[in-house]
Specification:
Helix content is 66%, strand content 0%. The protein has three helices and no strands.
Length: 92
Amino acid sequence: MDGNEMLETTNETENVDTLTTEEREGEGTLESADFTDNTESVKEENEVKFSQDDLDRIVKDRLSRQETKIREEYEKKYGRLETIVNAGLRNQ
């Protein structure tokens, strides 16, 4: 390729205003509207209510598991390094 040759550059942008085929197919159908109404009614029927004590217990259990996981991860990553540093400091 010649060093003086200018390459053609294009400034193309994506047209986000056009609808995809899937979006066009879904327009104006009553089935999609009926489906969302059915979904909302099912969610209302499956709604579970917790007491404050239940929520407190659930949060406490999750925090405990998360803390244990973090401690294990820390020990796995930095446990040996900490041992080496402490050994080096004792020998000074």
